[in-house]
């Protein structure tokens, strides 16, 4: 590809044209029989998607990279296609987290690794999630939890901690399927159901109820690097994520009892009736 750079010199009407070669992104080769499927939802992330795809392909020798482009208009989906990713394209936006579900349904691997198109992680760090699943973990989470060490703790962080405590998984703190990157085993996908990945806290609740092995595997810094974090206090995703956690809690209550499976200890409620 050639780009013409035009420099206007001090003398009038004199123009120098310089041809500059641009190296296109290296094309990847997807495995025909993948062991790992990397699912990347994509919407207007041209600045980062090439690096995300390149690093994702190297997590395992047998890897397929699936990009779910929804409503993308900045050329990022064309770039992903040029790089050789398996494309699932929608002209209109699907809504938050829907791309994960669609990509999971198309995945062939025994390990499913979920990324976003706007945050670049090193291949070596992503391999930790893949290795964890191959060694018996069903749901391998990012250890990033958000901080409780402040006067006004973010409501999303509180929601994650609260849900894990209700699931009798306090050791996870705020680790959550809401946060990328994370990975699932094929067994986990079948137990959870790809359709439930559209509501990550609900998917995590189902995984816990099914007795799947859930573990915080590696710390990935997403608080500072996530563009969504920079939308300010009125970020609409905050209410969406809190609502997702409420839906997860309701699912837990529906599947257990009004106390979410928690014991009453020695409390005798009949005495006050």
From TrEMBL:
InterPro entries: Glyco_trans_2-like (IPR001173), Glycosyltransferase_2 (IPR050256), Nucleotide-diphossugar_trans (IPR029044). This is Glycosyltransferase. It holds the Pfam family Glycos_transf_2. Residues 37-141 form the Glycosyltransferase 2-like domain. It comes from the Bacteria.
């Amino acid at each position: 590809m050639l780009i013409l750079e035009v420099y206007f010199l001090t003398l009038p009407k004199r123009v120098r044209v310089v041809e500059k070669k641009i190296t296109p992104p290296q094309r990847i080769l997807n495995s025909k029989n993948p062991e790992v499927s990397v699912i990347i939802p994509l919407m207007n992330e041209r600045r980062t998607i090439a690096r995300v795809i390149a690093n994702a392909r190297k997590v395992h020798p047998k890897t397929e990279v699936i990009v779910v482009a929804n409503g993308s208009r900045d050329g990022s989906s064309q770039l992903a296609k040029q790089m050789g990713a398996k494309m699932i394209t929608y002209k209109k936006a699907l809504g938050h987290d829907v791309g994960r579900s669609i990509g999971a349904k198309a995945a062939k691997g025994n390990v499913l690794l979920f990324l976003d198109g706007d945050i670049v992680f090193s291949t070596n760090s992503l391999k930790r999630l893949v290795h964890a699943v191959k060694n018996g973990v069903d749901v391998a989470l990012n250890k990033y939890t958000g901080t409780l060490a402040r006067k006004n703790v973010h409501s999303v962080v509180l929601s994650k901690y609260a849900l894990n405590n209700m699931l009798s998984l306090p050791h996870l703190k705020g680790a959550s399927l809401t946060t990328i990157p994370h990975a699932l085993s094929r067994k986990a996908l079948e137990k959870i159901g790809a359709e439930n990945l559209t509501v990550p806290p609900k998917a995590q609740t189902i995984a816990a109820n099914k007795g799947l092995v859930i573990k915080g595997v590696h710390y990935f810094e997403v608080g500072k690097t996530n563009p969504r974090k920079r939308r300010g206090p009125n970020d609409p995703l905050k209410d969406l994520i809190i609502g997702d956690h409420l839906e997860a809690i309701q699912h837990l209550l529906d599947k257990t009892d009004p106390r979410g499976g928690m014991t009453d200890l020695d409390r005798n409620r009949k005495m006050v009736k």
